[in-house]
Amino acid sequence: MNKRILVTGAAGFIGAFLSARLVREGWDVTGLDSVNSYYDPGIKEDRIRMVEAAAGEASGSFTLVRGDLADAALVERTFAEGEFDVVVNLAAQAGVRYSIDNPKAYIDSNLVGFYNVLEACRHHPVKHLVYASSSSVYGGNEKVPLSESDAVDHPVSLYAATKKSNELMAHAYSKLYGIPATGLRFFTVYGPMGRPDMAYFKFADTLRAGGTIGIYNMGDCRRDFTYVDDIVEGVMRVIPHAPEDCGTGARYGVYNIGNSEPVQLLEFVDTLQRVLVEEGVLPPDYDFAAHRELLPMQPGDVVETYADCSELERDLGYRPSTRLEDGLRAFARWYRGYYGF
Asked: Which of 169, 206, 293, 311 is the 20 to 30 Å CA partner of 318?
């Protein structure tokens, strides 16, 4: 395999860390990202600089194309000029709650944008298309841990529905046009330089500002928090292993990538608060009890996510392993340094 790769969403959380890893390992990376204002574009620009710095010290290269995945002409031109061996599609409109108030953003990015990628892969064949799905496709499934063989027919948010649609679209294009495609169902990714709309980041911002954090479902939720480096390692393992015929005539596969250790939300909050104090983000005498509120379940949320990663371990010898405390401590250290206090 040559080493020309397109990473869509390269200014995003996972996309930037993956791109930095790729250039360090000698890949010539083209990133495509609109760098939109869904959250602070400043963090996205800093991620881009991080990748560029990594490329400056490595044998690989990084080129950023600024544009929207829903722009079919731009996507076609990028593919025609890039002659990519591999595509990793991470660009998407993220967020469950945001999809309730802004549904069109999900149609444009997650459906139209992904269609454009599939069409480009059809006309400019690649050795492997790897794309981001999500643990949200499991909806309200009560059987845990969640396995790739479980039914995913009852999404509880539009975001989840678009990710399930991506899996169906990828299978159809693989069947029709021979595109080797692997979907990755990510479970609650966190870490330094992450998304400010994620709970751990919002909690840190809110507590620093003296506000009150809302803990949904009265704290009775469990999440399979997965550290960003573990996610990147999983993607790197998948890239060189395009799937064989899955039994339907399509070269198609799906993997869970999660930590396989779900944590109750109250335990998560306690751990985050402790490391924020220990790393100097919050003062030692911070009154946490006065700054938290238990709230009911929110529309689109699920009670528990818990990944069965045995297929990833069986096929590629890998299972995420970063402890929650270690990952949150890395975030807290970055947060303090980034905001300069």
From this structure: 169
Structural domain boundaries of the chain? 4-192+226-258+306-323
Predicted confidence (pLDDT) per residue in 237-253, tens digit: 999 999 999 999 999 99
Model pTM score: 0.96
Cα atoms in the Cβ-side hemisphere of radius 13 Å centred on 28: 8
**Which long-range contacts (C-beta less than 8 Å, at least 24 apart) are formed by 275-281?**
275/325, 275/328, 275/329, 275/332, 276/204, 276/207, 276/332, 278/329, 278/332, 279/329, 279/332, 279/333, 279/336, 280/336, 280/341, 281/204, 281/208, 281/332, 281/335, 281/336, 281/341
* Catalytic status, residue 115: no
Pick the catalytic residue: 106, 138, 159, 255? 159
Each residue's pLDDT tens digit, 27-62: 999 999 999 999 999 999 999 999 999 999 999 999
